[in-house]
From TrEMBL:
Gene3D superfamilies: Glycosidases, Golgi alpha-mannosidase II. The keyword Transmembrane helix applies. PANTHER family: ALPHA-AMYLASE 1, ALPHA-AMYLASE FAMILY MEMBER. It comes from the Bacteria. Residues 36-363 form the Glycosyl hydrolase family 13 catalytic domain. The keyword Signal applies. This is Alpha-amylase family glycosyl hydrolase. Residues 1-23 form the signal peptide. Its cofactor is Ca(2+). One of its GO terms (molecular function) is hydrolase activity. Pfam families: Alpha-amylase, Alpha-amylase_C_2.
Length: 487
C-alpha cells in the first residue's frame, strides 16, 4: 500500500496533476459554514461507551460521543451550518479526551463509539445536506505511540505543545512515514465516507508533504475538502498558493479584539481584504482560544450585542466561518483559557441562534457574499460599509460598532433602485439631492440588497387609513354614547 501511494503521487506529478490544478476550479469549501465539535465535550448519546468517565475532573473524559452528535444533527442543520468538523476521533492515550494525543491513526477511540457509528453519522448528515470532516494531526503523536519502540527512526524530534511537553514529532520527510499518513487518511475515507480533513501542520511540516497530502486526497475524489490549520506564515503562503483553505489565526485574533469592545474602528481589518482572503477559515473563538464571550465581558460589554456584530462581519467577508460549539449560546467559562466544558446547547435564549440562522440563509441566498469581490465603501469612525459584487449582483454590508448613531452616504446605486435591509427591514431610497443615506443606531448592523424602488404602496396606505379611520370613528361614537348615558 505504501509503495502504491508513492507511485500514485509520482504519477500525478508526472502528469502535472498537482494541487495547482485545483487553483482554477471553484473551490467547494468557499460556500461552507463550519461547526466545530469537541467530541468528548459535546453530547453524551450512548452510555455504553462511558469508560472511565469522570465529569468532576477537567482532564478526564466526560462522555461525549458520535451518537450524541447524531442526536443533534437537526439542531446543527437548523443553525444553518453546512459542514461539521470533528476533533480527532482516532485512538488516544488516557490523557487525550481532546483527541490530540493519537496512539493509532487507523483505530477509533472507543470512548466515542465504533466505526459503524461514524458511518451512520456521515449517512445521516448527508441526508441533511451536511458534510463531515475530521481533524487530522501530523505535528506530533502520543508519548504512548508504538513507533517509539517499534519504529524509532520514524520519530525525528520532540516538541512542546499545548497538548503536552516533549511530544514525539513524526519524520514526515521520510517517504515511509508520509505514506503511512496518506494511507491512514485514505483508510478513514474508505471506511466511513467522510468528506475531508482539517490538517494540523506547523513550521516543521515539509511543504512537499502538505502538497502531496492534498493531491493524494483529491485524487481519490476532487470534491473532498482539505483545510490546513497552522500559525506559520510561510506554510500559510505555500498552502494558499496551492489553493488550499487555511485556518488563519492572525486575522481571527484581530477580529476578536476589534469586536470585543464598542467604539473600536473596523479599519484594522481592512488590510486583510486581499485576493487570498477567500481561502481563509476564520473564527471568533476556538478549541485553543478563550471564548469571545469572555473577551466581551472583560470589556464590560453585552455579549449578545458583540456576537451579533461579529457574526455579521464573519458571515459576509471573504472566507469560511468556523463556529466553535456552544458559541451560539454565548458560553463563558469565566477564565482567560480555552473552554473545554460540555456544550451548553440548551442554555440562554434563542435570539443569537435565530440571528445565526438568518445570517446563514442570507449567505446561502446571495453568491456575492461567498464568491464576490470586496470593496470598502466608507469607514466612518466605528461604522463601516463595504460591498460584495459577483456577476452583476451587489450586496452592501453596514456595521456600526460606534457608541452613537452613524450615517454613511452612497451615490452609486443605479437609477430607480432602492436598498432593502435583510436584517432590520430597513428601506433606503434616493433623496432629493440624489444620494442614499444609510443610518444605523449604535451597535447594530444590516445587510442590503438592491431592488427596484416601487415607491409608496398607496394601496397598503389606503387600507391602513381606512382601518384607522374606522377605529377612530368607533371610538368617537362610543364616547358620545357614554356621555349621553351619564347625563
Amino acid at each position: 500500500m505504501k509503495k502504491n501511494i508513492t507511485l500514485i503521487l509520482s504519477l500525478l506529478v508526472f502528469l502535472g496533476l498537482t494541487t495547482s490544478v485545483y487553483a482554477d476550479e471553484d473551490s467547494n469549501w468557499k460556500d461552507e459554514t463550519v461547526y466545530y465539535i469537541l467530541v468528548d465535550r459535546f453530547v453524551n448519546g450512548d452510555s455504553e461507551n462511558d469508560y472511565n468517565i469522570d465529569i468532576n475532573d477537567a482532564s478526564s473524559f466526560h462522555g461525549g460521543d458520535i451518537q450524541g452528535i447524531i442526536n443533534r444533527l437537526d439542531y446543527i442543520k437548523e443553525l444553518g451550518f453546512t459542514t461539521i468538523n470533528l476533533s480527532p476521533i482516532m485512538s488516544n492515550d488516557p490523557k487525550g479526551y481532546h483527541g490530540f494525543l493519537i496512539d493509532d491513526f487507523q483505530k477509533i477511540n472507543e470512548q466515542f463509539g465504533t466505526m459503524e457509528d461514524v458511518r451512520e453519522l456521515v449517512r445521516q448528515a448527508r441526508d441533511r445536506d451536511l458534510k463531515v470532516i475530521l481533524d487530522f494531526v501530523v505535528t506530533h503523536v502520543s508519548e504512548e505511540h508504538s513507533w517509539l519502540t517499534s519504529n524509532p527512526t520514524w520519530i525525528e524530534d520532540n516538541k512542546d505543545l499545548i497538548w503536552g511537553d516533549a511530544l514525539p514529532t513524526p519524520a514526515l520527510d521520510k517517504p515511509v512515514v508520509s505514506d503511512y499518513f496518506m494511507e491512514s487518511a485514505s483508510y478513514w475515507i474508505n471506511q466511513t465516507d467522510v468528506d475531508g480533513y482539517r490538517l494540523y501542520i506547523d513550521s516543521s511540516t515539509p511543504n512537499q508533504f502538505i502538497s502531496d497530502f492534498a493531491t493524494y486526497i483529491k485524487s481519490q475524489d476532487s470534491n473532498l475538502i482539505v483545510f490546513t490549520d497552522t500559525s506559520d506564515q510561510m506554510v500559510i503562503d505555500h498552502a494558499v498558493a496551492s489553493n488550499e483553505m487555511v485556518i488563519n489565526h492572525e486575522v481571527s485574533q484581530v477580529m476578536s479584539t476589534v469586536f470585543s469592545k464598542s467604539g473600536n474602528s473596523l479599519e484594522p481589518l481592512v488590510e486583510f481584504w486581499d485576493g487570498q482572503n477567500n481561502q481563509r477559515g476564520l473564527y471568533m473563538d476556538s478549541l485553543v482560544t478563550p471564548r469571545f464571550t469572555r473577551e466581551a465581558v472583560k470589556q464590560g460589554e453585552n455579549p449578545l450585542t458583540r456576537w451579533k456584530l461579529a457574526l455579521t462581519y464573519l458571515y459576509t467577508i471573504p472566507g469560511t466561518p468556523i463556529i466553535y460549539q456552544g458559541s451560539e449560546t454565548t458560553m463563558d467559562n469565566g477564565m482567560d483559557a480555552p473552554d473545554h466544558r460540555m456544550a451548553q446547547l440548551n442554555s440562554g435564549d434563542e435570539e443569537l441562534k435565530n440571528y445565526m440562522e438568518q445570517l446563514a440563509a442570507i449567505r446561502k441566498q446571495f453568491p456575492a457574499i461567498t464568491k464576490g469581490d470586496i470593496e470598502l465603501v466608507e469607514n466612518n469612525d466605528g461604522m463601516t460599509m463595504f460591498k460584495r459584487t459577483f456577476e452583476g449582483e451587489t450586496i452592501y454590508v453596514a456595521i456600526n460598532n460606534d457608541t452613537e448613531t452613524k450615517t454613511i452616504t452612497l451615490s452609486d446605486v443605479p437609477e430607480g433602485m432602492q436598498l432593502t435591509g435583510l436584517l432590520q427591514d430597513n428601506i433606503v431610497r434616493k433623496q432629493q439631492d440624489g444620494v442614499f443615506k444609510i443610518a444605523l443606531e449604535r451597535e447594530t448592523a444590516d445587510i442590503f440588497m438592491i431592488e427596484e424602488d416601487t415607491g409608496i404602496n398607496w394601496l397598503f396606505v389606503s387600507f391602513v387609513v381606512l382601518v384607522l379611520g374606522g377605529f377612530v370613528t368607533s371610538v368617537v361614537i362610543l364616547s358620545r354614547k357614554s356621555k349621553k348615558q351619564e347625563k
